[in-house]
Amino acid sequence: MERPEPELIRQSWRAVSRSPLEHGTVLFARLFDLERDLLPLFQYSGRQFSSPEDCLSSPEFLGHIRKVMLVIEAAVTNVEDLSSLEEYLAGLGRKHRAVGVKLSSFSTVGESLLYMLEKCLGPAFTPAMQAAWSQLYRVVVAAMSRGWDGE
């Protein structure tokens, strides 16, 4: 598989990384719009969220958003050597599997990531940039999916 275009990835991420929590919230709001069934997977201290809004405003979930944005940041930073993140991403895959996330949900996460980038960058989010991010995300998910292997 070809490597994603590093400069397009870095250039577009610079705008997002200035306010990761805000953009991460856009990503997850979109995710819950597209796949509402994911909401019950997020429980803290046994508490179920009554709505996506309830979830998106909870301090614990904001912590999760920060972590997700840091993972994307790590992929951007290592875009030219994503294999260096393989073990870490496989471990992340195992953690997601353990809490009941289905591998198929990651395609919805990918759609939500592209949606967030488009909202953040507007017309600057070119088709070439979208292709680069799609490629980067495919590589990340391929590594994470190793966490589902051996079932």
UniProtKB/TrEMBL annotation:
Residues 1-149 form the Globin domain. It catalyses: Fe(III)-heme b-[protein] + nitric oxide + H2O = Fe(II)-heme b-[protein] + nitrite + 2 H(+). It is found in: Cytoplasm, Cytosol; Mitochondrion matrix. Keywords: Cytoplasm, Heme, Iron, Metal-binding, Mitochondrion, Oxidoreductase, Oxygen transport, Transport. GO terms for molecular function: heme binding; metal ion binding; oxidoreductase activity; oxygen binding; oxygen carrier activity. GO terms for cellular component: cytosol; mitochondrial matrix. It comes from the Eukaryota. PROSITE patterns: GLOBIN. InterPro entries: Globin, Globin-like_OT, Globin-like_sf, Globin/Proto. Monomeric globin with a bis-histidyl six-coordinate heme-iron atom through which it can bind dioxygen, carbon monoxide and nitric oxide. Could help transport oxygen and increase its availability to the metabolically active neuronal tissues, though its low quantity in tissues as well as its high affinity for dioxygen, which may limit its oxygen-releasing ability, argue against it. The ferrous/deoxygenated form exhibits a nitrite reductase activity and it could produce nitric oxide which in turn inhibits cellular respiration in response to hypoxia. Monomer. Homodimer and homotetramer; disulfide-linked. Mainly monomeric but also detected as part of homodimers and homotetramers. Interacts with 14-3-3 proteins; regulates the phosphorylation of NGB. Could interact (ferrous form) with G-alpha(i) proteins (GTP-bound form). Belongs to the globin family. This is Neuroglobin. It comes from Sciurus carolinensis (Eastern gray squirrel).
